[in-house]
Amino acid sequence: MFKKILIANRGEIACRVIKTAKKMGIKTVAIYSDADKQALHVQMADEAVHIGPPPANQSYIVIENVMRAIKETGAEAVHPGYGFLSENSKFAEALEAAGVAFIGPPVGAIEKMGDKITSKKIAQEAKVSTVPGHMGLIADAEEAVKISNEIGYPVMIKASAGGGGKGMRIAWDDAGAREGFQSSKNEAANSFGDDRIFIEKFVTQPRHIEIQVLCDSHGNGIYLGERECSIQRRQQKVVEEAPSPFLDEATRKAMGEQAVALAKAVDYASAGTVEFIVDGDKNFYFLEMNTRLQVEHPVTELITGVDLVEQMIRVAYGEKLAMAQDDVKLTGWAIENRLYAEDPYRGFLPSIGRLTRYRPPEETAAGPLLINGKWQGDAPEGDFAVRNDTGVYEGGEISMYYDPMIAKLCTWAPTREAAIAHMRDALDGFELEGIGHNLPFLSAVMDHDIFIKGEMTTAFIEEQYPDGFEGVTLDEAALRKIAASAAAMHRVAEIRRTRVSGRMDNHERRVGAEWVVSLQGQDYPVTIAADREGSDVHFDDGTVLRVASKWTPGDQLARLDVNGEGLVLKVGKISGGFRIRSRGAEVKVHVRTPRQAELAKLMPEKVAPDTSKMLLCPMPGLIVKINVEEGEEVQEGQALCTVEAMKMENILRAERKGTVSKINAAPGDSLAVDEVIMEFE
């Protein structure tokens, strides 16, 4: 077996590979840029080599720099992770020339599957079901319209090279086809240096389902079930699960066999993923093959008990697969939520900064991975599994240079319902402060009826949150639980406060039993009857909730028992109450005496300042371009400036007609969120 491997990646995937390598007794080498000097993957590896400045195109994806690190450390093999150089055939060739093993597929497979047009032709030859479309070169927009009519609207216009949602447009008519063709062509040329475009049928009620394949260099290939990846935004996955709640055994088998046939057609050897689009009638069509380890691989591992990283290393070393298709068993259900440094209240724009608090839920080992002895890292055993693949730590920084992923939080349980329930608790118990993040959104998805029923399509986010995510409105039952909990917690805090030394003599303060709890625009008068084990909270309609907890003032996470049911609340202190976060909702809870509540109703409401005549920076980022000048009249929809952060470029446009009165920023300026870029008359 290899004695030392270099991981040509960063973040949580590098940490993930290191865990398996340690378990196998293999030494690891990390590479890092200036921005990642203190990163977790650097701390976890046995050795670390500096490879350049923060931007990835000057460090992580510079083949010469990575090759130098390999030479310096004497690494025998390289695991590319995903992203960066993982699907770069030139990198695989450079490793081959240097006599270093590539823990990934052969160069030929990368090249063939990396080009969407070539991969589709190979898929058709291998009798893999493909979406009807035109694979030849398209000369101009008029030809694009003609082809679109032949296929039948709606159609998807796609760039042949690249991925990540760039160079993709949906056209519903001739005008859309004309415009989409030109936009996709320009975007593809700018992003990938390749402006080849193809057109295919756009599948309605689409679900994004992918098959995990595993092949060796001896002609053996198996599939490890599927993953449901339909909940996406901007063609990027957010929630994944395995197996899919939609597929039946016959469809799973057909998809799996076709995926293996495709892999064998290109002499694939490693772990890889074949992506399919599946319509409402369970017709499935080949999308593309990812010749690398996927972000969502943990859910496959949790239901099969197979360590995919270990298998990749063994295949790269020349070993045969130790299992056949009949050995693959799907046990239980696994769900993965991608925790991103993105603000869901601002259109999921990236957020950067320091993690002032990062306390993920405690990992628990269970299921096939534990039974097979393949669990990575140390975790106590339990009836269900919680797994958190991460590359950050408390006090660490989320940089503007890289992908905004913080962690991949996974749960496993014997049933889907139980896996969802444990995921809700895990999300509620995840303490994260210092940056904007999508925890509230993930909690909202876990509680959404469509997700619970397993009826989501790739349009889930656009359909359910057409105006963006605006938080969660809690129902009456949830509000009462929080109100009762807040009242009990406030009482404890007030008793603590009365015992503080140095108070005036002869003015002993007594904590009453009657309170008014105000949250989400509602008032709940309550009376508390406390004992040593907890509190009975009486509402004015006769309802009584029993609250018990070990919470003490100052704790930022409260685990409570309310009428025998568990409740996890994130708690922040505000004047006269708490800022409570639960199940995707963030509410200010005020706990007042009846007289204070009476007077509070007479207080004037704070009115938010008028920013309608200002262009605010929507995220921390770099001003790339200013498109207008002071005194210039702008029209609705006109581009005003471009802001860049975390590999994302955002064009900010005018919301209405107006005249630019002042410009406060220039190209090259770094701005914080809500800084004023320009003002209007």
Automatic annotation (TrEMBL):
Its cofactor is biotin. It is an enzyme of class 6 (ligase). This is propionyl-CoA carboxylase. Pathway: Metabolic intermediate metabolism; propanoyl-CoA degradation; succinyl-CoA from propanoyl-CoA: step 1/3. GO terms for molecular function: ATP binding; metal ion binding; propionyl-CoA carboxylase activity. Keywords: ATP-binding, Biotin, Ligase, Lipid degradation, Lipid metabolism, Magnesium, Manganese, Metal-binding, Nucleotide-binding. It catalyses: propanoyl-CoA + hydrogencarbonate + ATP = (S)-methylmalonyl-CoA + ADP + phosphate + H(+).
